[in-house]
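Translate sequence into structure tokens.
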Amino acid sequence: MISEKQAELAKVITKFADSGWSLIDVPAKAWLQKRFESDREVVRNLIDAIEKADGACGNCGCEFDALYKTVLQSEELLLA
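Result follows.
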């Protein structure tokens, strides 16, 4: 059973998957497909992509700015 926080993270990652920005949408889609398998490589790819996205535009003022940080602060929940 997933926690409320994990459900919130899944919603955020779904936003990334729907973003149309290949930097984050491809790894987000991969995580959503395998999120119940605890695939460390998929999680690492997602975290790497979010870190890059945060570095590239994490302060541009878009809705994703805070979402990048939310996921990065809850990284351990991505494997649960």
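Note: The mean pLDDT is 92.
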